[in-house]
Here is the input.
Amino acid sequence: MRIVPVAAFFISLHPLPACQSDNLNTPVTRKTLMPVISYPSGRTATTMALTLLVGVFLLLSAREGVSNFYALLANQELTHPSLTDQRFREEGGTRALHYLTESLRYSPDNAWALEEMGALQTRRLRIFTGPLQALTLRNAGVSANLHLHKALLERPTSPYIWANLALAKLAQNEIDGELSQALRRADDLGPWEPDVQKIVFYVSLAVWDRLDQEQQDSVLKTMQRGAKRDAKNMLSVAKYFGRNELICAINKYNNSAVDTACNTVTKQKTSTGRSSS
Here is the structure.
């Protein structure tokens, strides 16, 4: 019995294609040994690119979501009624600072976290006033300006950021053109925002003599708008800065505290006029 070699048997069952069998006698060269690179078709390449873009988008969205979550925790910490000035002075806002640091680690350009960090450092400027805390004050001032300016790059139309910038500059005694600009922008962008009204009115009265007549008139309008919602607070700010002449401007809102204060101012003016005559 004749034994057929295995290789020959398989070749007889599966003959090579004509193109390959013809090349059996072709000499092997470096060119014939080079691998052939097969590129994906146009549809496959598009699918791969879209998949990659979707993956990047999901990753960025996840990081932004985590960043916003930490910013929310910081906001809740800073606005909680239990965080009094005394407690803030003792703790330094360390928990909120940790939340904001984590938030900016996930998304360095998160405008919300940047604004909250600026507000936190501004509060430090207002609370820590002792001579032994000079380094803390200097660092807080630099940090407040840096984070608020970065926040404005992301949200240039936010009245809250402009108002916080004005407050930060006041806390550092930087009474300049940028502070006036911050007050104008905050007032123009958020004329009916209660928190913006309070900050604009407070900072404006602190630098009242540095404001021109046009800006003083604008501040009086802000005070009148704010008094429709919270006349008592506007009264307390005016009395704190000794601007009693402004009190009667909000008398028409029928607030008993304002009425009493205005009557007192009127009596003082009357008595002063009689004594001088």
Observations:
- Residues 58-156 form one domain.
- The radius of gyration is 36 Å.
